[in-house]
Amino acid sequence: MTRHPASPQGRPVTRPGERVRRAGAVGALALALATAGCGVPDTLAGLHPAPAEPAAAEPLDGDGAQAVTARVLDAARAVATDTGKKGNRARAEVMRGDALTYANALAKAGAASDGEGALGTASEPTVIAQSEGRDWPRAILATTLDDATSTQYLHVLVSRKPTEAFVLEASVPMFGGAALPAVATEGTGSPFVDPSARDGLAMSPDKALTGYASALRRPEPEKEPKGISAEDPFHDALTASADRQAKALKKLATLRQKHTADPKDAVAFRLADGGAVTFGLMTRTDTITVGKKAKELVLPTTYAKLVGSRKVTESMSLTSLEPVILVIPADSGDVTAIGATELLVSGKGS
Amino acid sequence: MVRIVVRLVGVLLALAGLSLTVVGVWLALKLGGSGTAVFTTRPAAGQVVLLPPQVLNRVDADVRVTATPADGDRVWMALANPSDAQDVLGDAEHVQVTGVDVRDWLLTTTTVGSGETPMIAAADLWRQTDDAEGPVTLTVEQAQAPETVVVRGLDGGEVDTVTMTVTDKRWFVEAVVAALVGLFLLVAGVVAAWPRRRRTPVPPPVFDDPSAVREEHAAEPAETPAARPAEDPEEVSR
Q1: How many domains does chain B have?
Q2: ipTM of the complex, rounded to two decimals
Q3: Does chain A have fewer CB atoms within 10 Å around its N or its C terminus?
Q4: Best interface-test mutation with B: which of A2, A26, A29 has the largest number of B CBs within 10 A?
Q5: DSSP, res A95
C-alpha cells in the first residue's frame, strides 16, 4: 500500500499545478531582472554633460588660421598697386594701422608695382602663432618668404571685434640671419601685450620704440639710450648712408636725421621666454640745411620730384616711413631690432 | 493579508510592465533598426537659430544639423566655438535651442536677446560655414566639442526648418530590451495577481496506527495452522 507524507497540522498540500504557477512567476521575474541587468546602461540614452570650453586655447584651429592668413594676404596683394583714393579705400578694407600707412605710401610712390614690399610677391604663408584665449582683439603672426631676395617677412593680422574679419596691421622684413625667438606654446597661443604696459618686460613696447628711434638719430647721441642696442644691420645701413651723404655735401650743407616713433598702432606678442616681440612704425626726417658757403643745392631727380623743385637755397627735408620689429627681453636686457625697412614718402624744400 | 499584498504588487508590476512594453515598442518603431532620432524646429520668420553644445555635444555620436530655407531663399549655417558664437551675436534677438522633446520629436527653443542681428557671416571666427539655396547640412563631430551651430537666412531669406539628427544603434537595442523587460514584468505581475481557487485540505491517510491495521485485517480470516490443509503424512516424514 502506498504511503503519503503526513502533515500533522492538516495544512493544505501544494498541488503540482500551483507549484508550476509559482515557479513561472518567479522565473519570469528573475528573467526580467536578469535582462534588465545585462542590457540597460546606467544612463539610458547615453547622455552626458557637454564638455567645457578651454579658456586658454587659440582662437582658431591651425587650418582656420592658415586659411584666414592666406585670404588676407592675397586680398592685400590684389590691391597693393591700386592708386588714388579708390586704391586707398580698397586697401582700407583689408589693411589697417602701420600696414595701411606703408602700403598707401608704397602705392603712391609707384614702388608697389615694382614688386617691392612684403606684398610684392605671392608666397604661401606660415602661421607662427595666434593670440591666446577667446577674447578680442585677436591676432595671427605669420611669415612669408620672398624667394627672389631670400627675405623673410613677418605679418601681423588683427581682428579687433567679433564681427570684424582679420585685417593686415603690420608687414615687416626681417634682417638676413635674424631669428625670431619662440613665440608661444602650440595650442594655447601667445598673449597680446599692451604696448603701453611694461608687464614684466625690460621696458614697455612703446618705450622700446621711442628708445630705438632715439638711438638711430644723427648726429649720433653721445650716449646710447639705456636698455637699447642699435647694433643691427638697419642702424649700420643708415649710418653708412648718412656718411655717404655727408661726404657728398662736404661743408656746403649739414645733414641731421631724426627718428620719431609712432606707437599708437604698435602690436606686441608675448614670447615663450617672457619677453615680447613688437611691431611698430617710425618716421625719419632727413633735414639738409644749406651752409653759408653754398648758394643753393641741386637735388637729384628722386628728391626733386618729392620736393617739387630741383634746387633749394635754404633747407630740404625728406620724410621716410620705417616699420620695425623689436624684441624686448623679460625683466632686464637690451632691446634689439630683428627687422626693419624704409620708404621715402615725401619731401619739402625752400 | 499576504495574499492581498502579493496581488497588489502583481498589479503594479503588470502596469509597469505594460507601460514599459508600450514605450519600448513605440521607441523601437520610431528609431528604426539604425537608432536614428530626428528632432525638428520651425523658427519664426527672420530669426537666427543657435544650437549650443548643451544640445549638440551631450552624446558620443556625431550630430547632423540640416537647415532648409523657404522656397527660393538661401540659408547660411556655421560652426563655431560656443563663446565666439555668443560674442558675435551679442544682444541680438535669436532663437536658442534648449533641448529635445522625445514625445513629439521636436527641438525645444526659447527666444533670447532683443537687438538687431549684426553682419555675422563676415566674421573670421567660424570653424566651418556653408550656404545654399537648398538644404544645408553640417556634421558636428564630437572630437571637436564643444561647438555651436548658427543658422540664418541670407539676403533677407527665411529659414523653414532646422533638423538635428542623431544616430545611435544602442537606443534601438535599449528600446527592444525595455519592451522585453516590460513583457516579463507584465507576465510576472499577471501571474502574481491572478486569483487562486481556495481548496479544502485533504486529510492524509494514517499509516502507523496499530488498531487500524488490526481492523484492516479483521475482515480477513485468520490463517492458523489448524486451518491449513492437512499435509500428507507421508510427505512430512520424507
Answers
A1: 2
A2: 0.71
A3: N
A4: A29
A5: B
